[in-house]
Amino acid sequence: MTGQPRADQPGAAYIDATAGVAGDMLLAALLDAGADAERVRGAIVSLGVPGLGLRTQAARRGGLACLRAVITTPAVADRPRHLADVLGHVGASDLAPAGKDLASRVFRLLAEAEGAVHGEPPENVHFHEVGAFDSLADVVGSAAALEDLGLLAPGAVVRCSALAAGSGFVTSGHGRLPVPAPAVLQIAAAAGLTLAGSDPPGSGLAGSDLTDSDLTGERTTPTGAALLAAAAAPGGFPAMTVRAVGTGGGGRDTPDRPNITRVVIGVPVAERDLHEGDVTVVESTVDDLDPRLWPSVLQAVRAAGAWDCWCTPIVGRHGRPGQVLTALCAEPVYRAVAAAMFAHTGTLGVRWSRMNRLTAARTSVQVQVGPPDSSQVVTVKVAGAAGGPAGFGTATAELAEAEAAARALGWPVRAVCEAAVAQYRAQYRAPALASHRSSRHPRWCHDRGLSTPPVAAAPDRSWITSATSPGGISCGPWPACQPGDLLTGLRVLAPVLHARFRR
Question: Span 130-158, mean pLDDT?
Fold first, then answer.
């Protein structure tokens, strides 16, 4: 399997879950597609659970060759865990920040789904099956594999098919549950995933009756659904040059069709990295609500499952000022969103429509901001630039995290946002641009008193964040740097210097 994307370059993938998906099946498919098995094993071992490991074995499902991922677990019985316990294991692992972020989002999705099913806050949920040893290894191993294949890098495009609904019942820690499992349905509703029966696409019947399917038994597990919700966007095959195909097998060899999950890996075609899909728009016109209540209304609509919501000021037919409340959501949750609008605004009517939209490929990257001894983690949302170099699309710091970091550091929020984006730019500099600077411009550096590091040495960019501490600016010789580093540093330092001298 040659020509795979490198971990530091964005890749593309399509995950075929039409026959089912579970944590071990996805992990096996990624390994079969070329993910470094030793790196995955190292991530699992770093969880700090003695006896927890991974072995692989060749298998056949429905006559098709596939790979099985078998998690070796300790002899001692596992204990139920809360969300904080699981996130502690993830945080202590040797996953890179992008991998830790993915694994943490998977377990938060699982906790929120289980909490919604059982009527408990996510923090109080006992994870049972999804918090057991093997699920910890499945999620962390899959995060390491996705990272190794370049599928967590900024600009990566990962899509998934509809998820097989299955039929019948499954035995769980809460007894026999109908299939699809309640947690699977919650995750699908929250992430806008599609659950479908066995009817072929285009028949007009796909997904029309979740229980009328020749795919018997549990086909999609909560862990498998959460992994796809966190790592992929529902949709068709992305535009890419195919480099590898991986097939992961499940524990059963079912007679109706191969019990497999397939992963197709490739290099994205940048000119066609926009995804076309559907979105449900829910709206209501309100002209008699106390303006002070609008923040709580928007919060309630988001909590009901809306991806985004906002208000647009209008003037009604009698000249009365009002607001049009608009929410975007997946079709399965539009009734819950409408119910929140009725409950929190007192409106007498809600309308909805289905619209087409184009979305750019996006991802989240965690960076460190601030002095090394008190740095804060801030997430940067990144959307790839179509046709442009990786790492130079739209990058925006998560405002809530930037505000928390600003309070901890004593910085202005604006300075934290700019430092986070600058750190992301420096960390994910495009190889094409870096090659143009390989000469280090010796005359440029000499004229300005800058030293020129050897070509093989990585430039030290730590001064970009350490120097931006309000109390951390000190005199001294220029650090070894490239022209681009100087410009980036000045952009970050400008608001801090301005704030200091205004005092």
Answer: 88
Query: Which residues fall within 8 angstroms of residue 299, CB to CB, at 6 or more apart?
Result: none
Contacts of 296 (CB under 8 A, 6+ apart): 344
- 330-349 pLDDT, tens per residue? 988 999 999 999 999 999 99
Provide φ and ψ at 105, rounded to 5°. -65, -35
How far, in Å, CA of 310 to CA of 336, rounded?
17
Neighbours of 125 (CB within 10 A): 23
Residues 6+ apart with CB under 8 A from 423: 367, 368, 369, 461, 464, 465
Residue with tokens 């010789």: 477
Could you tell me the two tokens for 283?
């709206």
Give the side-chain half-sphere CA count within 13 A for 296. Answer: 8
pLDDT tens, 467-493?
Answer: 444 444 444 444 444 444 445 555 555
CA distances to 1, 72, 206, 238, 435 from 266, rounded to whole Å, are 11, 31, 28, 9, 24
Given a contact cutoff of 8 angstroms between Cβ atoms, the answer to whether 14 and 254 are in contact is no
The DSSP line for 19-60 is T-B-HHHHHHHHHHTT--HHHHHHHHHTT--TT-EEEEEEEE
Element (H, E) at 233: strand 233-234
- Read off the DSSP letter of residue 382: E
Which helix (DSSP H) or strand (DSSP E) does residue 313 occupy?
Answer: strand 308-315
* Residue 501: other Cβ atoms inside 10 A: 7
Roughly how many angstroms between the first and final C-alpha of the chain, as a whole number? 60
Name residue 263's amino acid: V
d(CA 105, CA 123): 14
Give me the sign of the Cα torsion angle 221, 226, 227, 228: positive
Structure tokens at 94: 């040797």
pLDDT over threshold 70, residue 450: no
| Residue 217 β-bridge partners | 167
- Do residues 370 and 379 make contact, with C-beta atoms less than 8 angstroms apart? no
- H helix or E strand, kind and range, residue 299: helix 294-303
- What the block records as the tokens of 408 is 């901890």
- Residue whose C-alpha is closest to residue 162's, from 268, 261, 82, 235: 235
Supply angle C-alpha 230, 42, 458, rounded to 5: 85
Closest CA to 46 of 96, 104, 83, 109: 96
pLDDT score of 203? 35
Q: Is the omega angle on the peptide bond into residue 180 within 30 degrees of 0, that is, cis?
A: yes
pLDDT given for residue 215 in this prediction: 63
Residue-wise pLDDT for 163-200, tens only, equals: 988 877 666 666 677 878 888 999 998 888 888 875 44
Q: What letter does residue 78 receive in the DSSP assignment?
A: P
The confidence band for 461, taking pLDDT boundaries of 50, 70 and 90, is: very low
Average pLDDT (277-281) is: 92
